[in-house]
Write a structure and sequence with these properties.
Chain A: It is found in: Membrane. The complex is a heterodimer of chains A (560) and B (443). Helix content of chain A is 24%, strand content 20%. With 560 residues, chain A is α+β, with helices and mostly antiparallel strands. In chain A, α8 packs parallel to α13 and α8 packs across α14. The chains are: A alpha+beta (560), B alpha/beta (443).
């Protein structure tokens, strides 16, 4: 195994691994400060923050050091490479670079959104000098609010790392951003009248190591040190981007992509990034309801759940073939499992159907090319299938029913009057059921709507269950590729709304508390396709279900 | 030393010297015929033997650079000719291009044959309008005469030469900046490796050579390597890394001299000889205070260092960065070195491409400090700060991608080392040489 020496500490790297000094040092637990280098972007070695001393350790143990400094990002390591990051020479270079970067920086940290998660702050504190020797006036550059619908540029805070420019050229392929002017007067800008509004534009805010590019949505909403973060998965489409939810006092303030090589890589799209606003919507169902004989029978969980259980048991006992449950692809594996298992235990003749799988257009691949041809190497995909867990729910349905009944077929059967009762678990905030479906539901003797938002269906339902948005519950999502990832309860729902898993858990009469990891282990033990999840913990990057997760082909899924 | 008979400038000033007909009458394109009759590797060997070192500034042996191309490469291989002559005080390329373009074009054709390139680009700085027109016409003449095109002089060798006009930036003279600019991008120098000879223009092997180097190639092939090696300063046997300084060189003499101009002399002439014998001395009976040996990025020679030979090694011995472009600028004793240095710093701050932090911010900061000193607000500690900033930038300490900031730092280092008492007196006496208009000048 090739061995690299970081500050005299030997680190073994893989024989075929191509690492630069920064990555090799990370293995050794040594931080090499850097700005312009990003693992997903090309190397430009222009910020000169990652300068290190490089040497070569000969087989006889002698070390030959190079006389000058090298940028760690540009220098690959090989067997015997010696990297020194803490010598006086390196420290002096780091100090000098930071002093240069701060020369024309406005130092407006008290009003800067990035303060608290700013690499200029962090590195200045760790590697910089305590004061600046600049006596002359700083350069003043105009702020650029027009740079995009979602992003704004505080030009004078920029350190010209050009990560944003490279992102729009290499990842989104849209190339809106550029460098204008020269030398110390350089600025990031757009081409006149061509703002940066591509669907990945929000990523430049995350990429910006300082407070230059800011999200208009998040601007001045919170100081970042008040935010509490939890890992999660974006529910916006079947890509299943790993994300971090930042919240304070049960209010989500922003979503950020979280690196996951198995899911999406480093980034996320703006549809997902800004697609969480429904969580705090006024239209949210805030409490459960049981209605009958034209009046409200109950509006607390304690009243509603026993009534619901009785009604359900009654309906299934009376005519199991005429009772159906629809489980949304926005439900977690655990919710689908608990509900499906209980209903099938009540009677194997109960029909289980897949909820409507929304699709929008076609899969959107990046980087975009000038000709519009598909990219040679896809760096990011926004999928047409706007549901986070179709595969997970399908696997559950397939296990309990043998085949997956898609929503369109089911809706046809419902319109023909094949059913008397329906449990509709819909967690998709954007799903609008067609009028004829709503009309058909009106004829049902028992309609249970388990949803997030008020809708024509929830108004006419006999039972309304106020469920939780994805950020309010624990569970598992399986993405398009069979990658199972865990989501976590990050915020509390409005008023009396409850996480769906807990509702189903209590409805099915299980004792104790709903715990996603426990149910996940149960699922893994029972359904072979989920066997890889047996540990219950899915780690940071999720667990791939592998070949076992292949779902039998179902007829083309269409929006209802 | 007997008076040197110009070779490169031999035809300059003659009537219609830029025309193909007069060039051929004077024996033009015979060297190309000779080269085409030789295998390419033999041509490279001739150039290597001649000891020709690049005339663009760095002085890298041309023949050796050519051998860095990958062997047996399927092509295309490109030749990029650097005519982005931007170093202050330098105008030798301009004279060659305006007065004797065929001499250069012949060198380009020979070089392309040697390195197996079928395409050559001439990257011309925008300001050289006349050069553009003259070269354009000369290239057309060559195509019409079958010297360029699909069948060079009937040998079946294909050669296309394109004249590309830059948008006027100093950084385009850096070879990888030039390549980026040729590709239509912002001229930000590339990180190396890979070097252009491996991966250059359009990601293909590329050789970048200066205009004057091309002219020299013509004469080396025409007159032989031995002739070229008979001129100049031989390699120092005590220094194995010295490649010698052979051949004639175009010295651009400007500044405070009576007869400024472009002088072709053997490498190794001293600054004193250049100023007194050729330039006719300093006007108004003044004395030399400082001499820029080869463009301002090379630093300064003080008055007592004028006897140092201006070859590839000489200026370095006096603490300068090198010979550079051999643009000798004379500064007389009535000039303030503070003003000279400010002017240098302002130039580099204006021309820094802004890619690497130390250069982008350092060059501008040094300019601001000198501006403050010139407005009478300087402090003695500013001089140490200037030295520290100058010492922290460049490819020599390893803090930048290209050499621009070495060039920006060198005049500061030299001036403060050789003329520090003048700077100290200037600051102590709170002098100010700021012109009223400069009071408000933005940096």
């Amino acid at each position: 195994m090739p061995t690299v020496y970081i500050n005299d500490k030997p680190v073994e790297i893989g024989a075929s691994e191509r690492l630069n000094c920064i990555q090799a040092a990370q293995r050794a637990g040594v931080e090499i400060p850097h700005y312009c280098w990003h693992p997903a972007l090309s190397v430009v070695a222009s910020c000169r923050m990652c300068l290190v001393e490089i040497g070569d350790r000969k087989p006889d143990g002698t070390i030959a050091m190079q006389p000058k400094l090298f940028p760690g990002c540009q220098t690959p390591v090989k067997d015997g490479t010696v990297v020194i990051t803490n010598s006086t020479k390196v420290r002096d270079a780091q100090k000098a670079t930071l002093e240069y970067l701060l020369l024309n920086h406005p130092l407006d940290c008290p009003v800067c959104d990035q303060a608290g998660e700013c690499y200029l702050q962090d590195y200045s504190y760790k590697y910089g000098r305590g004061y600046s020797r600049l006596q002359e006036p700083k350069n003043i550059k105009p702020d650029k609010d027009h740079i995009g619908e979602q992003i704004t540029l505080f030009t004078d805070r920029c350190i010209m790392c050009t990560r944003c420019v490279r992102f729009t050229r290499e990842i989104s392929g849209t190339g809106e951003l550029q460098v204008i002017h020269r030398g110390t007067h350089e600025e990031i800008d757009i081409f006149p009248g061509e703002p940066c509004n591509n669907k990945l534009a929000g990523n430049v805010v995350d990429l910006c190591p300082v407070g230059a590019l800011c999200s208009k949505d998040f601007l001045y909403k919170q100081r970042v040190w008040w935010l509490k973060s939890k890992p999660s998965v974006c529910p916006g489409c079947s890509t299943g981007c790993s994300i971090t939810i930042d919240q304070n006092d049960d209010v989500i303030y922003r979503l950020r992509p979280r690196f996951n090589p198995q899911a999406q890589g480093h980034f996320m799209c703006d549809d997902g990034r800004f697609g969480w606003k429904y969580v705090g919507s006024e239209q949210r169902l805030k409490s459960p309801a049981a209605r009958g004989e034209g009046r409200l029978l109950g509006s607390t969980w304690e009243e509603v759940l026993p009534l619901l259980k009785a009604a359900l048991t009654d309906a299934i006992r009376r005519a199991p073939k005429r009772f159906a449950a629809v489980i949304s692809p926005w439900a977690t594996v655990e919710e689908a499992y608990l509900l499906a298992k209980w209903l099938k235990a009540a009677s194997p003749e109960v029909t289980l159907a897949m909820g409507p799988v929304r699709t929008e257009g076609e899969d959107d691949h990046y980087p975009k090319t000038v000709t519009g041809a598909p990219p040679a190497q896809v760096r990011f995909t926004i999928r047409a299938e706007k549901a986070p867990n179709r595969r997970g729910v399908e696997l559950v349905l397939q296990h309990f029913q043998g085949e997956v009944l898609n929503f369109e077929t089911f809706a046809g059967q419902l319109r023909q009057g094949q059913f008397d009762g329906l449990y509709l678990l819909n967690a998709d905030p954007q799903q609008r059921f067609a009028d004829d479906f709503v009309a058909a539901c009106r004829k049902l003797r028992l309609l249970i709507v388990h949803d997030l938002l008020e809708s024509p269906l929830s108004e006419q339902a006999h039972f309304v269950l106020a469920g939780g948005a994805w950020a309010e519950k624990d569970g598992t999502f399986v993405n398009h590729n069979g990658l199972a990832q865990a989501i976590f309860r990050t915020v509390r729902g409005p008023e009396d709304a409850r996480p769906d898993g807990r509702i189903v858990w209590e409805l099915t009469g299980r004792t104790g508390l709903f715990r996603a990891a426990t149910v996940r282990q149960e699922v893994a033990g029972e359904i072979p396709a989920f066997a890889p999840l047996i540990l219950g913990d899915l780690g940071d990057h999720g667990v791939s279900l592998g070949a076992a997760s292949a779902v039998r082909e179902t007829p083309a899924l269409q929006p209802a | 030393m007997p008076k040197f008979k110009p070779v490169l400038l031999a035809r300059v000033g003659k009537p219609d010297s830029a025309l193909l007909s007069t060039y051929q009458r004077d024996g033009g394109y015979e060297a190309l015929k000779k080269a085409l009759s030789m295998p390419p590797d033999d041509v490279i060997n001739v150039v290597k033997e001649s000891g020709l070192r690049g005339r663009g500034g760095a002085g890298f042996p041309t023949g050796v650079k050519w051998t860095f191309l990958p062997k047996g490469h399927p092509g295309p291989i490109y030749l990029a000719v650097n005519a982005d002559e931007s170093e202050p005080g330098t105008f030798n390329n301009r004279i060659l291009m305006e007065e004797d373009p065929h001499q250069i074009l012949e060198g380009i054709a020979i070089s392309c044959h040697a390195i197996r390139a079928n395409t050559a680009y001439i990257y011309l700085r925008y300001e050289y309008g006349k050069s553009y027109r003259v070269l354009e016409r000369a290239i057309e003449e060559c195509y019409a005469a079958g010297i360029f095109g699909g069948n060079v002089l009937g040998t079946g060798f294909r050669l296309d030469v394109y004249l590309h006009r830059g948008a006027a930036a100093y950084i385009c003279g850096e070879e990888t900046g030039l390549i980026e600019s040729l590709e239509g991008k912002r001229a930000w120098p590339r990180i190396k490796p890979p070097f252009p000879a491996i991966e250059g223009l359009f990601r293909k092997p590329t050789i970048v050579n200066n205009i004057e180097t091309m002219a020299c190639v013509t004469h080396i092939l025409g007159r032989g390597a031995a002739w070229f090696k008979s001129i100049g300063v031989p390699a120092d046997p005590a220094n194995p890394r010295d490649a010698g300084s052979y051949g004639p060189k175009l010295y651009c003499l400007s500044g405070h001299v009576n007869r400024p101009g472009c002088y072709e002399l053997p490498l190794g002439v001293t600054a004193r000889e250049l100023i007194e014998e050729h330039g006719g001395g300093v006007p108004h009976g003044r004395n030399v205070k400082a001499v820029v040996p080869g463009g301002i990025s090379m630093g300064f020679l003080a008055a007592h260092e004028l006897d140092i030979p201006l070859d590839f090694n000489g200026p370095g011995k006096a603490g300068c960065l090198g010979l550079g472009t051999a643009a000798v600028i004379v500064i007389d004793d009535a000039t303030s070195m503070v003003d000279v240095l400010y002017n240098c710093c302002r130039f580099f701050s204006h021309e820094s491409c802004g890619q690497c932090t130390p250069c982008r911010e350092g060059t501008a900061w040094m300019t601001k400090i000198l501006h403050r000193i010139r407005s009478g607000q300087g402090e003695l500690r500013d001089l140490d700060l200037l030295l520290e900033v100058a010492g922290s930038m460049g490819i020599i300490p390893g803090t930048t991608i290209c050499g621009l900031s070495d060039g920006a730092a060198w005049p500061v280092k030299n001036a403060l080392q050789k003329f520090r008492p003048e700077f100290e007196a200037y600051i102590r006496e709170r002098r100010s040489t700021l012109k009223p208009a400069e009071m408000w000048s933005a940096h």
